Amino acid sequence: MDNSILISAHSILRWAVLLFGLYAITKSARGVLYKQDYTSNHNLAATLFIASVHLQVVIGLLLYVARGWADSFSDMAATMGNASSRFWAVEHLTGMLLAAILIQIGRTKSKKATETAKKHKIALLFFSIGLLIILAMIPWPFRGEVARSLWP
Q1: Of 97, 88, 101, 83, whose CA–CA distance to 139 is shortest?
Q2: How far lies 50's CA from each of 15, 114, 148, in Å?
Q3: Confidence of residue 127 (pLDDT cuts 50, 70, 90)
Q4: DSSP-assigned letter for residue 143
Q5: Which residue from 1, 9, 93, 134 has the least number of CB within 10 angstroms?
Q6: Nearest CA to 23 among 3, 1, 41, 4?
Q7: Which residues contact 79 (CB under 8 A, 6 or more apart)?
Q8: What one-character-per-residue DSSP string does 44-113 give?
Q9: By the 8 A CB rule, do 21 and 134 touch?
Q10: Which of these, 56, 52, 45, lies nearest to 124 by C-alpha position?
Q11: Is the pTM for the entire model greater than 0.85?
Q12: What is the DSSP letter of 138?
């Protein structure tokens, strides 16, 4: 598959992840603050967030392999000594996988919770931490050597 197609899809999907994340966090925060029932709208918000994160991870892993970042583990000293290589081969991958895992844990735990307030609190906590990690690991235009455009 063409790398440019994957990169464009990954860059565009970033916005869906961020928007769905903010939507899910807002729904959970409102649920906590206003002691709302956990409705199908809350469930939809969480589902959209986790689905967009999962798709983003799959595309990201395809890019990781297609761009040859997996090969960087053969010379880890050189990779770790170069800020750009380290970011793409290690930091971005690790941070985003950690965020996806935390978001998935939050989704699973909130679905299993029996009390409405607990469902909202768990989702709010895990989704917020996951989204903060995602925000920290995005190669924003101000990130120096690893900076990327806001749009493909």
Answers
A1: 88
A2: 14, 20, 24
A3: very high
A4: S
A5: 1
A6: 41
A7: 72, 73, 85, 86, 89, 90
A8: HHHHHHHHHHHHHHHHHHHHHHHTTGGGGGGGHHHHHHSHHHHIIIIIHHHHHHHHHHHHHHHHHHHHH-
A9: yes
A10: 45
A11: yes
A12: S
Name, in order, each residue with C-beta under 8 angstroms of 129's C-beta and a sequence gap of 6 or more. Answer: 99, 102
Which residue, 122, 119, 127, 121, is CA-closest to 102?
A: 127
Residue 42 CA to residue 51 CA, distance in Å, equals 14
What are the backbone angles phi and psi of residue 37, rounded to the nearest 5°?
A: -65, 155
Q: Read off the pLDDT of residues 47-86 as tens digits, 9 standing for 90 and up.
A: 999 999 999 999 999 999 988 877 777 888 888 999 998 9
Residue count of the chain: 152
User: Taking 70 as the threshold, does the pLDDT of residue 1 lie above it?
Assistant: no
Residue 152 has pLDDT above 90, yes or no: no
